[in-house]
Amino acid sequence: MNTILRRLSIAGLAVATTLGASSAFAYGAGDWFTHFGIAKVSPKSDNGNFDAIGVDKIDVDDESGFAFTLGYRFLDHWGVELLAAQRFEHDITLDGTQMASTKHLPPTLTLQYYPLGGTDSRVQPYVGAGLNYTHFSDEKVDSGSLDMDDSWGAAAQLGVDLLIDDHWSLNAAAWYLDIDSDTTATISGESYDTTVHIDPVVVMGGIGYRF
């Protein structure tokens, strides 16, 4: 009887050890990872004015599209991540009338801190700070032309990974981007300058994969 109990105990310990090993995610240094999903770019309200042509309020509309990130964890608690996306197209409203549009690419690089990095916690929050570069293209305005300069600015980030297994996770993240574009509108041969303050919050939900 004692022999049987001893064998059952050893078998139970082996099973527990195996299950424990399978739940250890080793979430930390040396991980390459990607996130991909849908991102919504929400510029702040009231993005400036164009007093030179009698426009009191410029508004840049929200837009959604596919986005992805690529990152590397060089320490358990520290990593870097690059945000990329398809081109977002925004309608631009002047004093309540949609009269212009632009497309932009907002690649953003952040240095990230993971407070629970190096543990087997299934919930892995992180914060980040870094730099955004925004490239504008295909600018249009009714009855004229529009030129928006590219922008460099600061970026801040919050996010969380909900780990499914050793490779897959659910991800939610948000960025604040400081985007200010010096803008020139040419109407009837006359050029007028202003600065458009877009400063969006980007919210992304999707799937993560660790290599």
From TrEMBL:
UniProt keyword annotation of Signal present: yes
GO cellular component: outer membrane
Keywords: Signal
Gene3D superfamilies membership: 2.40.160.20
Pfam families, per database record: OmpW (PF03922)
UniProt xrefs under SUPFAM superfamilies: OMPA-like
InterPro entries: OMP/PagP_B-barrel (IPR011250), OMPW (IPR005618)
Signal peptide positions (record): 1-26
GO biological process, one term: transmembrane transport
Designated name of the protein: Outer membrane beta-barrel protein
Organism: Salinicola corii
Organism lineage: Bacteria, Pseudomonadati, Pseudomonadota, Gammaproteobacteria, Oceanospirillales
